[in-house]
Prior knowledge:
Layout: H1 5-29, E1 45-62, E2 71-75, E3 77-89, E4 94-98, E5 101-105, E6 109-113, E7 123-125, E8 135-147, E9 154-167, E10 185-187, E11 190-203, E12 208-218, E13 223-226, H2 230-234, E14 236-250
Antiparallel strand pairs: 1-3, 1-14, 2-6, 3-4, 3-5, 4-8, 5-8, 6-7, 8-9, 9-11, 10-13, 11-12, 12-14
Amino acid sequence: MRKYKWQLISFMMVLGILCTSILEVSAQGRRFRFINRPDYDYRPYHFGFSLGANVVNFAVRENQEFTDFRYILPEPAFGFNIGIVSNLKLTEHLDLRFIPTLVFADDRYIEYYTGAFNDGPAHNHHRFAENDPGVTQLDLPLHVKYKSVRMPNTRAYVIGGLKYSYDFASTEKGSTSGAQDVLFVKIGKNDIHYELGVGFDHYFYYFKFSTEIKASFGLMNLVRMGDEGARYFDSIDRVNSRSILISFLFE
């Protein structure tokens, strides 16, 4: 996956921009248009699904009492996500949304530099094994969606809320059985995030299509314990999860 990370993210972004551009050009090209699905916004609830791409990373705070490393830097990972949309109408402009999502990505790494940055990292570890499982994560977000006035087949919106995440490939319970399984830092399975995002709804004849981008900020310290080579663990005071998700929703 890491080999094709830029191609994947570029493709998803271009696809979203292209879809949005086509819709806007179509809107400008016709003076009069039919209003698609005029009854859609009056439904008390509806369902759908989402597809998207993501960038996941760590935010690392170094322990100032330990100076074994000159730099400790996180390395992002790229992947994709799929989810199921559940939407409950609260008011004309306010919805409550629950979107269970599976997130797949390459593994995130923490790079340890003992010399200058140009010299490259001395060690590059989070999970260090021959068969790296990468990130496989279940997200359970609960969002409030505030929608603009419909105009007439498009509307903008903002979202915000909290998310619980469970990392199936976490190293929290990991053990060292050999040199290639050494875990310098163990990362917890459970996390709580707050999320903020923006998007656009586009109404078609048979369904509603939405393009959305949101940022996710982990609140919990994910560092659980050190392993062999305690200086790698002791040099880190706090690790938080960070991610950006681009989603295409069909409802």
